[in-house]
């Protein structure tokens, strides 16, 4: 009888998280010609010149660039070296640490569960993670011994606050406020990624005890909120965060090269993180993290804010689902109406004058950004990653642009803005 009840429960859980079919049937990304989608092949070749010049001049060791329009990949090329010290050329299927590009994927997972009625976006996170009950805001700090005083926050942290970086939570070692870097280090918070034997649950519960930058909803501070939501997804779904993404997103989308930790057969395609020393590129050393975290270590820390590795084509597939209004290959991942809500300004005027606002997963281009030129049409959404990766998707022009690199430290890299401009100038209809 007990086994029967267990089976029934498993079936119910599985049904609750099953995929849904769509009346739409947009095909998976396919290769096509620039001419067939209204792009100039001659003008796209200017991207070649830009990338080759950066490699030749020693400004970057290598990169992969991809452009798609109307569901067709019309430009996909590799330049330079994946591992300069070893003399290993870059390839189009190279795997990159996408770091903060993980955030959009985590946000998507949250919204998929929201569509199933599992929670409200304005629910306090303490409803699901009690450790966040009664948050406090930092008021004073002693540098001599890192002690501090904090006062009760005006309100609870909500799921929406975590999605929009308005919770008041900081970001440890990369926080702009030295006080929080010191507080997080003393508390043993694990930031970004790690090879250590720790789970996201353990780190999040420690994080919940620490003071906030500001009252929830009263400011924008880039934060570990998406890590909190990775653990939240585990609680709501009853699955590990990694398993949820594989079953609900990556496998149905065909994103076979996207993982928190790479299977052995994919490890050789992982690009080395490099830095410039003199006139040579060398492997980035171990600092507060080991750059080999996707293939070594305990492999238990599923960072919703920064932990994934992927390819240019896999990430383009993810973005294409958004350009299709939440559907790909006959599978509905999100409703078009949900995506429309996600793209609205969720952070009031905290980014006023920047040319973008922030939604529930992406930075979104506004009228100021369009007027600046070279950034895309109104509503173009974008982000990047800690290891020098960038992407954008233009819903009006149905264009995706992805530029993957792997560097840390100072570099004279102008490819981010140049690539985006060069994609736009290649539109020929």
Task: Describe the structure in brief.
This protein is 31% helix and 18% strand. With 429 residues, it is of the alpha+beta class.
List keywords for this structure.
disordered N terminus; 3-stranded antiparallel β-sheet; 12 helices; 31% helix; single chain; alpha+beta; 9-stranded mixed β-sheet
Tell me, rounded to a whole number, the average pLDDT.
94
Largest β-sheet summary: 9 strands, mixed
The first-level CATH class of the largest domain is given as Alpha Beta
- The residue fraction in helices comes out at 25-40%
Describe the SSE topology.
Elements: H1 2-16, E1 20-21, E2 30-31, H2 41-56, E3 62-69, E4 72-83, E5 88-89, E6 96-97, H3 102-115, E7 136-141, E8 148-152, H4 159-164, H5 178-187, H6 200-207, H7 225-237, H8 241-253, E9 274-277, E10 280-283, E11 309-310, H9 312-323, E12 327-328, E13 331-332, H10 336-342, E14 356-358, E15 363-365, H11 367-372, E16 381-385, E17 389-394, E18 399-404, H12 415-425
Parallel strand pairs: 2-4
Antiparallel strand pairs: 1-13, 3-4, 3-18, 4-5, 6-11, 7-8, 9-10, 12-13, 14-15, 15-16, 16-17, 17-18
Helix pairs in contact: 2-12, 3-7
């Amino acid at each position: 009888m007990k086994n029967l009840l267990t089976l029934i429960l498993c079936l119910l859980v599985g049904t609750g998280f099953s995929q849904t079919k769509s009346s739409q049937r947009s095909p998976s990304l396919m290769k096509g010609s620039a001419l067939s989608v209204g792009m100039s092949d001659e003008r796209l070749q200017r991207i070649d010149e830009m990338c080759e010049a950066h490699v030749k001049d020693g400004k970057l060791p290598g990169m992969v660039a991809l452009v798609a329009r109307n569901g067709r990949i019309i430009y996909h090329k590799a330049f330079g070296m994946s591992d300069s010290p070893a003399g290993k050329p870059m390839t189009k299927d190279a795997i990159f640490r996408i770091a903060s590009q993980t955030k959009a994927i985590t946000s998507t997972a949250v919204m998929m569960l929201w569509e199933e009625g599992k929670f409200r976006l304005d629910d306090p996170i303490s409803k699901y993670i009690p450790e966040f009950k009664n948050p406090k805001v930092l008021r004073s700090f002693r540098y001599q011994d890192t002690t501090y005083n904090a006062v009760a926050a005006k309100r609870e942290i909500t799921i929406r606050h975590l999605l929009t970086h308005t919770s008041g939570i900081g970001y440890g070692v990369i926080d702009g406020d030295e006080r929080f870097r010191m507080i997080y280090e003393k508390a043993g918070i694990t930031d970004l990624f790690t090879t250590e034997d720790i789970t996201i649950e353990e780190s999040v519960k420690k994080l919940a005890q620490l003071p906030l930058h500001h009252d929830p909803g009263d400011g924008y501070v880039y934060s570990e909120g998406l890590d909190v939501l990775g653990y939240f997804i585990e609680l709501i779904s009853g699955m590990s965060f990694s398993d949820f993404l594989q079953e609900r997103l990556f496998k149905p989308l065909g994103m076979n090269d996207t993982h928190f930790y790479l299977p052995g057969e994919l490890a050789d395609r992982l690009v080395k993180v490099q830095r410039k020393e003199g006139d040579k590129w060398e492997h980035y050393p171990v600092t507060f993290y080991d750059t080999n975290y996707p293939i070594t270590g305990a492999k238990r820390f599923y960072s919703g804010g920064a932990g994934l590795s992927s390819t240019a084509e896999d990430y383009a597939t993810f973005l294409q689902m958004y350009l299709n209004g939440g559907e790909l290959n006959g599978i509905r991942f999100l409703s078009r109406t949900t995506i429309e809500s996600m793209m609205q300004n969720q952070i009031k005027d905290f980014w006023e004058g920047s040319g973008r606002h922030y939604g529930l997963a992406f930075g979104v281009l506004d009228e100021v950004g369009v007027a600046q030129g070279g950034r895309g049409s109104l509503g173009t959404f974008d982000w990047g990653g800690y290891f020098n990766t960038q992407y954008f998707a233009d819903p009006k022009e149905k264009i995706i642009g992805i530029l993957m690199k792997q560097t840390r430290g100072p570099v004279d890299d102008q490819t981010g803005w140049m690539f985006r401009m060069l994609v736009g100038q290649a539109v020929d209809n």
